[in-house]
């Protein structure tokens, strides 16, 4: 889960958060189903970490505005942004482990996966 969250948080530096989750969540869901792991264990932290675009001006429009208006250098954003990214990703993974099971039952393989797989007409 931590590796997928890190990957997702760095991918969102180059494309939008919506694009990141649109591309990655189906992959993470299929991977979790193959591993017989609750997909929420991968998908919730990935969705949250896809919003952590702190490093580059292209990450979000707000980053670009601040970068241009304040006439920052790239290093002015990358160094503090990397620290913020490390802290937020670690916090997200830790909080997911702490409250994920009591709230979502993330450590049990859910029954609804088998039902959804049978009802999905695109499966072969």
From TrEMBL:
Which cellular component, as a GO term, is one annotated location?
plasma membrane
InterPro entries linked to this entry: SLC13A/DASS (IPR001898)
MF terms in GO: citrate transmembrane transporter activity; succinate transmembrane transporter activity
- Where does the UniProt annotation locate this protein? Membrane
Q: What is its main location?
A: membrane
State the membrane topology. Multi-pass membrane protein
Highest taxon, organism lineage: Eukaryota
TM ranges: 42-66, 78-99
Which of UniProt's keywords are assigned here?
Membrane, Transmembrane, Transmembrane helix
Q: So what family is this one in?
A: Belongs to the SLC13A/DASS transporter (TC 2.A.47) family. NADC subfamily.
Alphabetical list of PANTHER family matching this protein: SOLUTE CARRIER FAMILY 13 MEMBER, SOLUTE CARRIER FAMILY 13 MEMBER 2
Tell me what this protein is called: Putative transmembrane transport
Lineage, highest ranks first = Eukaryota, Metazoa, Ecdysozoa, Arthropoda, Chelicerata
């Amino acid at each position: 889960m931590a590796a997928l969250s890190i990957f997702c948080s760095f991918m969102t530096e180059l494309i939008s958060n919506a694009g990141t989750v649109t591309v990655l969540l189906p992959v993470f869901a299929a991977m979790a189903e193959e591993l017989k792991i609750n997909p929420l264990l991968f998908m919730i932290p990935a969705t949250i970490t896809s919003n952590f675009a702190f490093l580059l001006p292209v990450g979000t429009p707000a980053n670009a505005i601040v970068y241009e208006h304040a006439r920052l250098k790239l290093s002015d954003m990358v160094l503090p942004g990397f620290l913020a990214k490390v802290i937020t990703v670690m916090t997200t993974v830790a909080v997911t482990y702490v409250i994920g099971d009591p709230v979502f039952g993330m450590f049990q393989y859910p029954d609804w996966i088998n039902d959804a797989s049978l009802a999905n007409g695109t499966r072969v």
